[in-house]
Amino acid sequence: MLLDLTTSRRVVFVGGKGGVGKTSIAAALALGRARAGARVLLVSTDPAHNLGHLWGRSVGDEPTRLAGPGDLAPRAGAGTAGYVDGLEIDPERTVEQHLTAVAGTMRRMLPERMHAPAARHLELARQAPGTHESAVLERIADAVELGEESYDLVVFDTAPSGHTLRLFALPDQLASWTETLLANRDRSERFGAAVRGLGGGEETDRDAELRRILVRRRNRFSRLREVVTDPEGTGFVVVLTAERLPVAETLEVYEKLTGLGIDVTALVANRRSPADAGELLAGRRRQEDEHLVRLRQRVPDVPLLEVPLLPGDLAGTEALTALADRLGSRSP
After folding, report:
1. What value does the CA radius of gyration of the chain take, rounded to a whole number of Å?
2. Which residues are catalytic?
3. Where residue 182 falls among pLDDT bands split at 50, 70, 90?
């Protein structure tokens, strides 16, 4: 019932261990909702983008139509206005745009004698820890805002778990950091006002602009934090294969997401082996069953959906439609 579980959501993140089929499930979810009439934006935050390969067309850093009404077979009674647009966040371009914007702000805010040191600092920051994550988070905020304006649903195909968990921790950290800068700025302004009261200087447009930038940034990350932790509007789907390591990582992801106040909407056990296709796969199926029992014991309250191993290469609208048709089987 994955499609039903996400019907009321405006934002859905699809994550999990690398290689378990996150992109396929995210794309099938987007397609399934589009077939029901939704306007869907599918966003890849994974540096190893696969949307283009999966849909058989070029996907870049701006929204590209992946499936329109003519490509979709709507459900009975549903409208035909749904579509899927895709976007792959380009990490290098994102960092470049981020640093260019910061450089422009610094040139406006700093005296000319400081421009060269500031440029050297930014060049060092290009490779600094956190720069990539901060830039990608900005683009996630962009996509969420675009979704609120122009789409019914935004589906994020996320990077492997560790990278995604670091991203989810960032809005709080960046909002808190910006709040600290604002507090320092407030103290500085009070001191400046006292000096001006003694005839020692004037408030500048630069001071006002700096404050506007900091407030806008704080509000943006606070808003993103509100969206991500809103269980009515946002959900996280964890994809796994029923094997030891993916199950162990799923348990870890579940604990960390719930610790961050993020709703885990569903678990998807992808590529389940058939029980009736020979002893090799039957044995594998029994082993998978044991891993899923362990998962259910640890996470009993989150719906667990099982998606069978499908034949052939999973690529193109037709194959994704077949996968979307499978997003309804819940385990006993």
Report:
1. 23
2. 46
3. low
